[in-house]
Amino acid sequence: MEKKETYKLVVTRREAFEIDDEPDHNMMVVEMEGEPIDYQVGVAGEFVSRRSVTIHDRVRGWGLMEGYVMANFKNGSVYSRFKGSRDGLRKVTEGTWKTYLGTGNLAGTKGEGTFKLERADKADEFILHIEGDYEAA
Length: 137
Description:
By secondary structure, this protein is mainly β. Helix content is about 0%, strand content about 75%. The protein has a single domain (about 1-135), classed as AOC barrel-like (Beta Barrel), CATH 2.40.350.10.
């Protein structure tokens, strides 16, 4: 099935560490929670919560990131891993995601696709666009 969803994400925790090898090089661990803006209820049931933990390695706003997403629904949960790259000029992060675990009615769910993360109007808020395909077991 095709998946196309949009979420509003809010930073709930951030830790940054300076790396002294070149100017403005840092690593961050960021935790975000989110809620759907555009989500269609399917086999997963109603949305309950979404949390992600990400590691960023950036130089002057550019760099790689990777992390995990825990998405909980009325009928089960889905765990995904993602990797991406931030464009410091456009202030957009794009990458790929892939599920690795499902629970409840979502046990055995497989999926993968792409994502785009961009700043929202408020500080520490972002808009996440997800596209891809998934197959419920």
